[in-house]
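Quick one: co-fold with adenosine monophosphate.
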Amino acid sequence: MIFDLHTHSDASDGSLTPTELVSLAAENNVNVLSITDHDTVAAYDRISDGYCSSVALIPGIELSTTWSGRGIHIVGLNIDPASIELRRGIERQQSARHVRAQTIAKRLTKLGIDNPFDAVLANANGAGIGRPHFARHLVDIGVVKDVATAFRKYLGPGKPGDIKSGWGSLDETVSWILCAGGTAVLAHPAKYKFTTSKLRLLLDDFVTAGGRALEVVSGPQDPGVTRRMANLARDFGLAASSGSDFHHPGLTWSAPGRFAELPADIGKVWDSW
Ligand code: AMP
Ligand code: MN
Ligand code: MN
Ligand code: MN
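Sure, here it is.
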Protein backbone atom coordinates (compact mmCIF):
# COMPACT_ATOMS: atom_id res chain seq x y z
CA MET A 1 0.00 0.00 0.00
CA ILE A 2 1.26 3.48 -0.86
CA PHE A 3 0.25 6.23 1.55
CA ASP A 4 1.06 9.67 0.13
CA LEU A 5 -0.04 11.92 2.96
CA HIS A 6 1.52 15.22 1.85
CA THR A 7 0.69 16.81 -1.53
CA HIS A 8 -0.28 20.22 -2.94
CA SER A 9 -2.92 21.34 -5.43
CA ASP A 10 -3.50 24.72 -7.07
CA ALA A 11 -5.56 25.64 -4.02
CA SER A 12 -2.13 26.64 -2.63
CA ASP A 13 1.21 26.54 -4.47
CA GLY A 14 0.79 23.36 -6.52
CA SER A 15 -0.15 23.42 -10.20
CA LEU A 16 -2.75 20.63 -10.58
CA THR A 17 -6.41 21.00 -9.73
CA PRO A 18 -7.50 18.72 -6.86
CA THR A 19 -9.11 16.20 -9.23
CA GLU A 20 -6.07 16.22 -11.58
CA LEU A 21 -3.92 15.50 -8.52
CA VAL A 22 -6.13 12.57 -7.46
CA SER A 23 -5.92 11.18 -11.03
CA LEU A 24 -2.12 11.46 -11.12
CA ALA A 25 -1.92 9.75 -7.72
CA ALA A 26 -4.10 6.92 -9.08
CA GLU A 27 -1.78 6.57 -12.12
CA ASN A 28 1.17 6.34 -9.72
CA ASN A 29 -0.56 3.55 -7.74
CA VAL A 30 -1.12 5.62 -4.64
CA ASN A 31 -3.73 3.89 -2.47
CA VAL A 32 -4.31 6.59 0.14
CA LEU A 33 -3.80 10.29 -0.60
CA SER A 34 -4.00 13.46 1.43
CA ILE A 35 -4.07 16.87 -0.26
CA THR A 36 -2.35 19.05 2.31
CA ASP A 37 -2.41 22.56 0.90
CA HIS A 38 -0.71 25.40 2.74
CA ASP A 39 -3.14 26.93 5.25
CA THR A 40 -6.28 25.98 3.32
CA VAL A 41 -8.77 23.14 2.84
CA ALA A 42 -10.26 24.73 -0.30
CA ALA A 43 -9.27 21.66 -2.35
CA TYR A 44 -11.87 19.60 -0.45
CA ASP A 45 -14.60 22.14 -1.20
CA ARG A 46 -13.78 21.66 -4.91
CA ILE A 47 -14.02 17.84 -4.98
CA SER A 48 -17.69 17.02 -5.41
CA ASP A 49 -19.32 14.43 -3.17
CA GLY A 50 -19.99 12.18 -6.16
CA TYR A 51 -16.33 12.09 -7.24
CA CYS A 52 -15.11 8.52 -7.44
CA SER A 53 -11.53 7.25 -7.66
CA SER A 54 -9.50 4.18 -6.72
CA VAL A 55 -7.58 6.48 -4.37
CA ALA A 56 -8.89 6.88 -0.82
CA LEU A 57 -8.77 10.56 0.12
CA ILE A 58 -7.89 11.58 3.68
CA PRO A 59 -8.61 15.27 4.38
CA GLY A 60 -5.49 17.19 5.36
CA ILE A 61 -3.75 20.55 5.58
CA GLU A 62 -0.22 21.94 6.02
CA LEU A 63 -0.15 24.77 8.54
CA SER A 64 2.65 27.34 8.73
CA THR A 65 4.06 28.29 12.11
CA THR A 66 7.19 29.81 13.58
CA TRP A 67 9.37 28.13 16.16
CA SER A 68 12.60 29.58 17.49
CA GLY A 69 12.62 32.14 14.67
CA ARG A 70 12.30 29.53 11.93
CA GLY A 71 9.40 28.68 9.64
CA ILE A 72 8.07 25.21 10.53
CA HIS A 73 5.26 23.24 8.88
CA ILE A 74 2.69 21.10 10.68
CA VAL A 75 0.58 18.70 8.64
CA GLY A 76 -2.89 17.87 9.96
CA LEU A 77 -4.27 14.54 8.78
CA ASN A 78 -7.72 12.99 8.95
CA ILE A 79 -9.22 16.35 9.86
CA ASP A 80 -12.81 17.47 9.53
CA PRO A 81 -12.45 20.25 6.96
CA ALA A 82 -15.70 21.80 8.23
CA SER A 83 -14.43 22.23 11.80
CA ILE A 84 -15.27 25.75 13.00
CA GLU A 85 -12.05 26.08 15.05
CA LEU A 86 -9.95 24.99 12.08
CA ARG A 87 -11.82 27.33 9.72
CA ARG A 88 -11.17 30.22 12.12
CA GLY A 89 -7.49 29.30 12.25
CA ILE A 90 -7.35 29.14 8.45
CA GLU A 91 -8.91 32.61 8.20
CA ARG A 92 -6.18 33.94 10.49
CA GLN A 93 -3.45 32.22 8.49
CA GLN A 94 -4.85 33.55 5.21
CA SER A 95 -4.97 37.13 6.46
CA ALA A 96 -1.41 36.71 7.79
CA ARG A 97 -0.47 35.43 4.32
CA HIS A 98 -2.02 38.48 2.65
CA VAL A 99 -0.28 40.99 4.95
CA ARG A 100 2.98 39.08 4.55
CA ALA A 101 2.65 39.16 0.75
CA GLN A 102 2.23 42.94 0.89
CA THR A 103 5.37 43.20 3.04
CA ILE A 104 7.36 40.95 0.69
CA ALA A 105 6.18 43.07 -2.27
CA LYS A 106 7.32 46.26 -0.50
CA ARG A 107 10.70 44.77 0.31
CA LEU A 108 11.24 43.64 -3.27
CA THR A 109 10.16 47.10 -4.49
CA LYS A 110 12.87 48.63 -2.28
CA LEU A 111 15.38 46.40 -4.05
CA GLY A 112 14.44 48.01 -7.37
CA ILE A 113 11.83 45.52 -8.60
CA ASP A 114 8.55 47.04 -9.89
CA ASN A 115 5.91 46.47 -7.18
CA PRO A 116 5.01 42.83 -7.87
CA PHE A 117 1.89 42.59 -5.66
CA ASP A 118 -0.82 42.80 -8.33
CA ALA A 119 0.97 40.40 -10.69
CA VAL A 120 1.57 37.90 -7.89
CA LEU A 121 -2.04 38.15 -6.73
CA ALA A 122 -3.16 37.39 -10.31
CA ASN A 123 -0.59 34.59 -10.52
CA ALA A 124 -2.00 32.97 -7.36
CA ASN A 125 -5.41 32.82 -9.09
CA GLY A 126 -7.49 32.84 -5.91
CA ALA A 127 -5.07 30.76 -3.80
CA GLY A 128 -3.39 32.30 -0.74
CA ILE A 129 -0.17 33.97 -1.91
CA GLY A 130 3.00 32.07 -1.08
CA ARG A 131 6.66 32.70 -1.79
CA PRO A 132 6.54 30.33 -4.82
CA HIS A 133 4.12 32.79 -6.49
CA PHE A 134 6.74 35.53 -5.98
CA ALA A 135 9.47 33.19 -7.21
CA ARG A 136 7.61 32.47 -10.46
CA HIS A 137 7.00 36.19 -10.99
CA LEU A 138 10.71 36.97 -10.53
CA VAL A 139 11.46 34.32 -13.17
CA ASP A 140 8.73 35.69 -15.50
CA ILE A 141 10.12 39.24 -15.41
CA GLY A 142 13.68 37.98 -15.92
CA VAL A 143 15.13 39.02 -12.55
CA VAL A 144 16.33 35.45 -11.91
CA LYS A 145 16.78 32.44 -14.17
CA ASP A 146 14.80 29.95 -12.08
CA VAL A 147 12.73 29.43 -8.95
CA ALA A 148 15.68 27.98 -7.01
CA THR A 149 17.70 31.16 -7.63
CA ALA A 150 14.70 33.30 -6.58
CA PHE A 151 14.68 31.48 -3.22
CA ARG A 152 18.44 31.63 -2.85
CA LYS A 153 18.64 35.37 -3.56
CA TYR A 154 15.32 36.84 -2.45
CA LEU A 155 12.92 34.51 -0.64
CA GLY A 156 14.79 31.79 1.25
CA PRO A 157 15.94 31.76 4.91
CA GLY A 158 17.49 35.08 5.94
CA LYS A 159 16.58 36.81 2.65
CA PRO A 160 14.30 39.89 2.32
CA GLY A 161 11.24 37.82 1.41
CA ASP A 162 11.59 35.52 4.40
CA ILE A 163 8.88 37.04 6.63
CA LYS A 164 7.98 34.75 9.51
CA SER A 165 5.72 36.84 11.68
CA GLY A 166 1.96 36.48 11.66
CA TRP A 167 1.41 32.73 11.77
CA GLY A 168 -0.37 31.01 14.64
CA SER A 169 1.99 29.62 17.29
CA LEU A 170 2.99 25.96 17.41
CA ASP A 171 0.44 25.39 20.21
CA GLU A 172 -2.30 27.14 18.24
CA THR A 173 -1.72 25.38 14.93
CA VAL A 174 -1.63 21.96 16.61
CA SER A 175 -4.77 22.79 18.60
CA TRP A 176 -6.72 23.68 15.41
CA ILE A 177 -5.82 20.25 14.02
CA LEU A 178 -6.85 18.52 17.26
CA CYS A 179 -10.15 20.47 17.35
CA ALA A 180 -10.81 19.21 13.82
CA GLY A 181 -10.35 15.62 15.08
CA GLY A 182 -7.06 15.22 13.23
CA THR A 183 -3.53 14.02 13.90
CA ALA A 184 -0.74 16.64 13.94
CA VAL A 185 2.39 15.57 12.03
CA LEU A 186 5.69 17.45 12.01
CA ALA A 187 6.35 17.90 8.26
CA HIS A 188 9.66 17.19 6.46
CA PRO A 189 11.89 17.32 9.60
CA ALA A 190 15.12 16.98 7.62
CA LYS A 191 14.34 20.08 5.53
CA TYR A 192 14.92 22.44 8.46
CA LYS A 193 18.59 21.39 8.53
CA PHE A 194 18.54 21.47 12.36
CA THR A 195 21.16 19.69 14.43
CA THR A 196 19.77 16.63 16.21
CA SER A 197 19.73 18.49 19.54
CA LYS A 198 17.73 21.39 18.03
CA LEU A 199 15.32 18.96 16.36
CA ARG A 200 14.85 17.25 19.73
CA LEU A 201 13.95 20.61 21.32
CA LEU A 202 11.38 21.17 18.58
CA LEU A 203 9.98 17.65 19.08
CA ASP A 204 9.71 18.26 22.85
CA ASP A 205 7.58 21.35 22.20
CA PHE A 206 5.63 19.62 19.42
CA VAL A 207 4.71 16.65 21.66
CA THR A 208 3.77 19.03 24.50
CA ALA A 209 1.50 20.90 22.07
CA GLY A 210 -0.26 17.61 21.21
CA GLY A 211 1.71 16.53 18.12
CA ARG A 212 1.55 12.77 17.54
CA ALA A 213 3.44 11.93 14.33
CA LEU A 214 6.61 12.65 12.37
CA GLU A 215 7.04 12.61 8.59
CA VAL A 216 9.78 10.00 8.65
CA VAL A 217 9.82 9.80 4.84
CA SER A 218 9.41 13.01 2.80
CA GLY A 219 9.91 12.44 -0.91
CA PRO A 220 13.10 10.86 -2.21
CA GLN A 221 15.57 10.88 0.69
CA ASP A 222 18.75 9.22 1.86
CA PRO A 223 18.16 5.93 3.78
CA GLY A 224 20.37 7.38 6.54
CA VAL A 225 17.92 10.27 6.98
CA THR A 226 15.01 7.80 7.17
CA ARG A 227 16.81 5.82 9.91
CA ARG A 228 17.61 8.99 11.87
CA MET A 229 14.01 10.22 11.67
CA ALA A 230 12.59 6.78 12.54
CA ASN A 231 14.82 6.69 15.63
CA LEU A 232 13.61 10.15 16.67
CA ALA A 233 9.99 9.09 16.15
CA ARG A 234 10.53 6.05 18.40
CA ASP A 235 12.28 8.17 21.08
CA PHE A 236 9.40 10.62 21.20
CA GLY A 237 6.60 8.05 20.92
CA LEU A 238 5.52 9.49 17.57
CA ALA A 239 3.88 7.54 14.76
CA ALA A 240 5.51 7.68 11.33
CA SER A 241 4.02 9.32 8.25
CA SER A 242 5.10 9.39 4.62
CA GLY A 243 4.47 11.77 1.74
CA SER A 244 5.91 13.17 -1.45
CA ASP A 245 5.34 16.92 -0.85
CA PHE A 246 4.38 16.92 -4.52
CA HIS A 247 3.73 20.34 -6.10
CA HIS A 248 4.22 20.18 -9.90
CA PRO A 249 4.35 17.42 -12.50
CA GLY A 250 7.55 17.03 -14.47
CA LEU A 251 9.82 19.01 -12.17
CA THR A 252 12.57 17.80 -9.89
CA TRP A 253 10.05 17.79 -7.02
CA SER A 254 9.05 14.27 -6.21
CA ALA A 255 6.01 12.75 -7.93
CA PRO A 256 3.00 11.44 -5.99
CA GLY A 257 3.75 8.08 -4.38
CA ARG A 258 7.44 8.08 -5.38
CA PHE A 259 9.30 7.59 -2.12
CA ALA A 260 10.68 4.74 -0.04
CA GLU A 261 8.52 2.62 2.26
CA LEU A 262 8.53 3.38 5.97
CA PRO A 263 10.56 0.99 8.13
CA ALA A 264 8.47 -2.09 9.00
CA ASP A 265 9.15 -1.89 12.74
CA ILE A 266 7.56 1.49 13.45
CA GLY A 267 3.97 2.51 14.23
CA LYS A 268 2.23 4.24 11.30
CA VAL A 269 0.06 7.31 11.58
CA TRP A 270 -2.75 5.45 9.76
CA ASP A 271 -2.76 2.50 12.21
CA SER A 272 -5.39 4.25 14.33
CA TRP A 273 -7.66 5.30 11.42
P1 AMP B 1 5.37 29.92 1.93
O1 AMP B 1 4.18 29.03 2.12
O2 AMP B 1 5.02 31.22 1.30
O3 AMP B 1 6.18 30.09 3.18
O4 AMP B 1 6.32 29.18 0.87
C1 AMP B 1 6.84 27.93 1.20
C2 AMP B 1 6.89 27.05 -0.03
O5 AMP B 1 7.92 27.52 -0.89
C3 AMP B 1 7.25 25.61 0.24
O6 AMP B 1 6.13 24.88 0.59
C4 AMP B 1 7.78 25.18 -1.10
O7 AMP B 1 6.71 24.86 -1.96
C5 AMP B 1 8.45 26.42 -1.63
N1 AMP B 1 9.91 26.46 -1.44
C6 AMP B 1 10.59 26.67 -0.30
N2 AMP B 1 11.92 26.68 -0.52
C7 AMP B 1 12.09 26.49 -1.85
C8 AMP B 1 13.23 26.41 -2.72
N3 AMP B 1 14.47 26.56 -2.25
N4 AMP B 1 13.01 26.19 -4.04
C9 AMP B 1 11.76 26.06 -4.51
N5 AMP B 1 10.65 26.14 -3.76
C10 AMP B 1 10.80 26.34 -2.44
MN1 MN C 1 4.72 24.54 -1.02
MN1 MN D 1 6.30 22.33 3.89
MN1 MN E 1 4.26 20.76 1.59
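If it helps, The CA atoms of residues 139 and 146 lie 6 Å apart.
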